[in-house]
Amino acid sequence: MHFRTKAIHVGNEPDATGAVVPPIYLAATYAQPGAGERGAFDYSRSGNPTRKAFETTLAAVESGCGALAFSSGMAAVHCVTMLLKTGDHILAGRDLYGGSFRLFHKIADRAGIDVTLVPTEDLDAVRAAIRPNTRLLWIESPGNPLLTITDIAACAEIAHRHGALLAVDNTFATPVLTRPLELGADISMHSVTKYIGGHSDVLGGALIVRDEELFRQLYFVQNATGAVMAPLESYLSGRGLKTLELRIRAQCQTAETVAAFLASHPRVRRVLYPGLPIHPGHEIAKNQMSGGFGAMISFELDADYDGAKRVVETTRIIRLAVSLGAVESLIEQPASMSHASYDPEVRRANGISDGLIRLSVGLEHPDDLLEDLDRALRLA
Ligand code: PLP
């Protein structure tokens, strides 16, 4: 079955009533066949039919043995870090979502877990930084917010050679463009809040897992800690998945047009978009991403903090907001918004300049987006 067909049908088989979409099961608990006997579901934290339907679809489209849905993307990242113990080491990409940076450095480190960040687009840097106690290699490709491209298959090989797990935050690439487990990763993670939900009305996260034993361990942590996705969110996420491929194809096409426009704009110093041939990761992206380069674009202005701030405050159709991946285009300044949890010096050292702007290209008509951007770049 092709991606779209799986997204529509797997996990969505009609139930006893013949309903062609899964019902939203709100029940917190389930009647059991007998004391000490367990039915298919017993308590909604441990399993819920609506959540299960979404997890089944997600595992099918990303070639996993199973998937787990969480109350947020960060809850999914946290669940992975809970596999580690004192003395373990996380090696993570430098181009990293601010919330993951905070979780690794300010929560995981409380348990005595060491964290090192490296530019994972440079495989020699990964090889040099991996240690005997590295238990987890964590990468994003494309990275947030610099859109760096990391070779997933090569990282899987390095991680496994050193006895570490490879987890890929696949939020920006989506299951349509990249399926990390097929490239050797152990875990693929999503902020479902973004492209999978797709309409800025769901907060959720997910892990898709390659191996039964690892799945069992992660399920244990999820059930023990409890940050599961709620039934309504599970329903909306499953619905989002059905149109994901069509949305992504259209959003990627518009993003290519917008990236070309920005690249030729006199006020723009540099465009970071893996679809541009000048992007250092373009060749790897061509192999690793199927049929598009994503719909996230970052760009640097010929301006400082205040100049970038004025541009993001001047667009009208493109809304000023964090988050991404939805039908409406969103713009933000990482220095003051999505990556504000970094110490400014560390942020700049990690390549996130004050003049950087991040754009999530939505489903509006491309001409309206170009006009809006051009106006903001001229006026601000
Ligand atoms: N990973 C990436 C790449 C993100 O962009 C985000 C949120 O912006 C997250 C993880 C965290 O997800 P959530 O906000 O759903 O907790």
Give a written overview of the molecule.
The protein has 380 residues and is of the alpha/beta class. The chain has 13 helices and twelve strands. The protein has helices at residues 3-9, 49-61, 73-81, 98-107, 123-129, 152-161, 174-177, 212-225, 231-263, 282-288, 305-314, 344-349, 366-379; strands spanning 66-70, 89-93, 114-118, 134-140, 165-169, 187-191, 205-209, 268-272, 296-301, 319-320, 330-332, 356-360. The strands form two sheets. The protein has a seven-stranded mixed β-sheet, with helices on both faces. α1 (3-9) packs antiparallel against α2 and α3 (73-81) runs parallel beside α4 (98-107). The protein is globular and about 70 Å long. It starts with a helix and ends with a helix. The structure holds pyridoxal-5'-phosphate. Residues 72-74, 97, 99-100, 140, 144, 169, 171-172, 191, 193, 203, 205, 323 line the site of pyridoxal-5'-phosphate. Pyridoxal-5'-phosphate is lined by residues 72-74, 97, 99-100, 140, 144, 169, 171-172, 191, 193, 203, 205, 323.
Summarize the structure.
This protein has 13 helices and twelve strands. It is α/β, with parallel strands linked by helices. The chain is globular, with a radius of gyration of 21 Å.
Strand order of the largest sheet: 1-7-6-5-4-2-3
DSSP strand content: 15-25%
What binds here, in terms of ligands, is: pyridoxal-5'-phosphate
Uncertain regions spanning at least 5 consecutive residues: none
Mean pLDDT: 96
List keywords for this structure.
single chain; about 375 residues; alpha/beta; seven-stranded mixed beta sheet; five-stranded mixed beta sheet; 13 helices; 12 strands; about 40% helix; globular; binds pyridoxal-5'-phosphate
